[in-house]
Amino acid sequence: MKVTRVGQFGWQLTRMGVVNSYVVRERNGCTLLDANLPGSAREILQEVHKQGAGEVERILLTHAHGDHVGSVDELMASLGDVDLAISARAARLLPKKPAQDHSLDPDEPQCKMRGIFPGIDAMPTHLVNDGELFGSLRCIATPGHTPGHFSFFDERDGTLYAGDEIITVGGTARVSGYAPWYFPLPNFATWHRPTALESARTLADLPIQRIASGHGRIVEDASALLQAVREAASKS
Ligand SMILES: [Zn+2]
Questions:
Q1: Rounded to whole angstroms, how far apart are CA atoms 135 and 157?
Q2: Helix (H, G, I), strand (E, B), or coil: what is residue 22?
Q3: What digits encode the pLDDT tens for the residues 151-176?
Q4: Taking a C-beta distance cutoff of 8 angstroms, is the pair 13, 56 a contact?
Q5: How far is the C-alpha of 28 from the C-alpha of 150, rounded, in Å?
Q6: How are beta strands 83-87 and 56-60 bridged, if at all?
Q7: Distance 162 CA to ligand 1 centre (A)
Q8: Burial annotation 34-54 (CB, 10 A radius, 16+ → b, else e)
Q9: pTM of the complete model
């Protein structure tokens, strides 16, 4: 597992070269942002301790795709009584089948959801709302990659934890659904890309210093998001 520092408070944990989780240090312990592929729990917890990030007190999920929730159950089994947080909309896709709910709301684009939703056994203990401050992370609804996808903005150091709303493989930020040909996976897994573009426009209003994506390296460029929005808009 590769570890990279992110801003003043974060660490990026990368498996298989392209699947990222993040650890964000808080006043009490740390928050694990996304739970990577299955079989990652032991290595994640080893790295958290090695880096001196404190104890994992909460797991926060951007969305329910398999490469973001893969190790939630293993982590909950080792950590015991920690919070598990996700948006209410994304939580509908979190249980295993048949409890998993693939219905669309009347005001949502009536497109088929894509990507793999393997489901987990653990139940969320907290449902985050748009605009809420969860620890030091501002929770922002960024639907498009999936319904109910959320991004998280650390207002202390300007780091945007974008999940799969923004992809940075190759070192350039792209809006979900507009990823480059050499890493098309998030495109195939994107539910509705015009909605993802609208979400990226919302994010562009934030004072972002760097982008930390679910896939790809950290982009240290305050203008990267605006460029991604422009590029995506030119293709839509
Ligand atoms: Zn995804």
A1: 14
A2: strand
A3: 999 999 999 999 999 999 989 999 99
A4: no
A5: 23
A6: parallel
A7: 11
A8: bbbeeebbeebbebbeeeebb
A9: 0.96
